[in-house]
Amino acid sequence: MSDTQANAALLVMDMQAGIVDRYAQSSDILERTNIAIATARAASIPVIYVVVGFRPGYPEVSSRNKMFSARRQAASSMVAFSTELPQAIAPQPTDVVITKRRVSAFSGSDLEVVLRAQNISHLVLCGIATSGVVLSTLREAADKDYQLTVLADCCLDSDEEVHRVLLSKVFPRQAEVTQAKDWAATLDVEK
């Protein structure tokens, strides 16, 4: 493992079933993400899943929050928002699952406590959506002085142009943007 990966963690963000199912190309991203997860585990890099979730009745959601208040209103007529992860990328007992209450993985969660406890200083990010959790987490993590890598082929967004611009123009200002296979090649793991 390279020195830059010594204190790394892989963050698999907002890839819970209810979100993944909204995307036609979700089977491809699950397959690529599963390979990244297996690579991280083989390199003894912690895998941390971040899911968005709320208590029954959504007491954490303000009517002033445009994104989540719409979900709260819809929840009154449907099953509660699921934090279940797809079997294809299911956590192992040694993995950590963090529940957040907002878009960024840090906001309304104990992610930073977990990272500090494990002396993590380098975050490898992947998730859905590129313009949501990945962007928000990247910006906040950069402000917190984490070293950052984004696995571009393990990110997905409903707007392909926004996805492209973020990965090619915005994220490289604060992170290394790479493909999962190229990231794996930087690690000293048995294939």
UniProtKB/TrEMBL annotation:
<feature type="domain" description="Isochorismatase-like">
    <location>
        <begin position="8"/>
        <end position="181"/>
    </location>
</feature>
<keyword id="KW-0378">Hydrolase</keyword>
<dbReference type="Pfam" id="PF00857">
    <property type="entry name" value="Isochorismatase"/>
</dbReference>
<dbReference type="InterPro" id="IPR000868">
    <property type="entry name" value="Isochorismatase-like_dom"/>
</dbReference>
<protein>
    <recommendedName>
        <fullName>Isochorismatase-like domain-containing protein</fullName>
    </recommendedName>
</protein>
<dbReference type="InterPro" id="IPR016291">
    <property type="entry name" value="Isochorismatase"/>
</dbReference>
<dbReference type="InterPro" id="IPR036380">
    <property type="entry name" value="Isochorismatase-like_sf"/>
</dbReference>
<dbReference type="GO" id="GO:0008908">
    <property type="term" value="F:isochorismatase activity"/>
</dbReference>
<dbReference type="InterPro" id="IPR050272">
    <property type="entry name" value="Isochorismatase-like_hydrls"/>
</dbReference>
